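user: Here is a favour to ask of a fellow structure person. I have my own habits and do not want them to colour yours. Could you put it straight underneath, so I can go through it closely?

assistant:
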Amino acid sequence: MKRFFITCMLSLFWFYPTQAETASTGNYGICAHLQRWEYPVYRQELDIIKELGIGFVRFDFDWAMIEPRRGEFHFERYDELVETARQKDVEVLPILCGWFDNRRISAPYKHMDEFLTYVRACVERYKGRIRYWEVMNEVNLPLFWGDKADGAKYADLLARTSRLIREIDPSAVVVYSGLSGIPLDFLEASFKNGAAENYDVMNIHPYSWTEVPELNLPSRFAGLHKLQEKYGVDKRDLWVTEMGNATGSNQVTAFDRIVERGIELCGIVPEENELVVIADDDYGYYSDDEMLLLQKRFKSIRTIALADLNRLDPVKNPFVMFSAVESFPGSQINKVQSYVKKGGTILLCGGLPFYFDLVPDGDSFRSVQVNDKYLKQLRIGWSAWWTDKDMPRSYSSVFLVDRGESYTISGIARGISGRNLTKDDRLIPLAFGVEKDRYFPCAGVYKLGGDFKGNVILCTAQELNTKENCSEDMQAKLLIRNGLILKGHGVNKYFVFKLPCKEESSHREQHFGIVRRNLEPKPAYYAYKTLIEMCPDGSSKVRLRQSDRIYIASWLTPDKLPVHAVWTYQRSAIPVKLQFKGKVTKVVNSLGKESSVTSPDITISDAPLFIAGPEKLEILRTDK
């Protein structure tokens, strides 16, 4: 095949940033539950944080622990944590409230006098030792707010809390609650009710889960920046105090049991068939790295793009695993329908299927909420408390029908529905969400009939799903890519969630850590160390360039050394030719291993490669 160079597709002419573009120090943080189950090893954890070069540790100032009974305060553990962190030059970012005693306090905003008494005790005690105060965590979620989320009510709590903090310590910095996702409606409701006057730092948790961050984050940040400009707060610092990806567990989970029973009811024998997974570079839609223990039982694994569904023979390939996300390119739904009509079985387990349509938006995609628009095409359905008044807001457990087993869970209740079935179809429940002795189907097999010959296995209980987890190698790659993308979109501080894994169960929350429970490093540990070393505190702001799925992030270190990171989000590597001005002084892979560029012809993968030295870097694709 004849090669040719795309000389105009992606080139970066780097101009040194002005002093105003130079970032502040302390740009990296990490979350750790030092005050809870990690307390016995908190000194070792703070040593790890210091060794990595991380400037901040974030943890809850749990109200229930600090004030177990009204007017009775216990700061002994927190005094120890704050002082030890200070000795190691690690700043503490405390989350005010943390866990509260819901037997005494139904929701903090309903008990403001008591809440402000607790806040006063914390701020007065640590004045001069703690500069930043985050006013609650993820208040747009009922779990943390204690009630239905309400931006206006949070604005009132924030105003009263910030006035008290500044009264006690005028030099204190008030950090907005770290919001789950980028909930623009919630934010605007709070701004309309005065929140803009009562915080110094905006704070979000824009998890991408299994979606591609390069395609997912740009449009979300565009909306955030537009809203900030509207209310005149676009010049304030923007922090991300949680971001990360959970890795897989080797434990057999309730979700594995559900899928195992589902494919059995569909007549599929894994040992005799290929498992089909999707890796679609055009849409950034992937299910090939998601963790399902049942994968190991299949004879082999085949990877296809969405366009290949039309050519897939359900007799030879009877089972396709879709991604554990609620987003899907609606333009491809007919291909899914065709495969199921011909007799194929698909697995949908990312909450509410096809809830968002992935719509092209420049060089990325925008998620447009379409609710149940595409469900009738597959005769499936879902239910939730906001559409069905009989549904609870959450489940306390999930009951597996065939095994007679119950699993404790927490989170938003979602169910499956048969409202789109025809007389020829059957819905076989596999699991029920349970709340107060009431049972609601949340996973099942849609055995379709009539002009459909196939099946749909659907699980809407996201809390059961371990497919949102990724491999340890992918966690490491995404840690760097997330960090550079966030920095390129104006984020001043990047906190990774989190330091150690708990590893007590297969639940996603137990496996976010960059080290294991015994503090042994995972690949993500080395990735974070590499990012901090190559883009240290005091570096200039990151500038992003991208074209044709190749990304370059560039910045200047404090000693004015130009550094570039290059990668692609697509699974297959891209051959390129490097052209640069200036001497290459260092080349480092995503895990910190040094190498050299002996030839300008290299391949770029989804693991960022750091190149230090050249003032100008140009990348020429050689595969087109």
Observations:
- The CA atoms of residues 25 and 537 lie 5 Å apart.
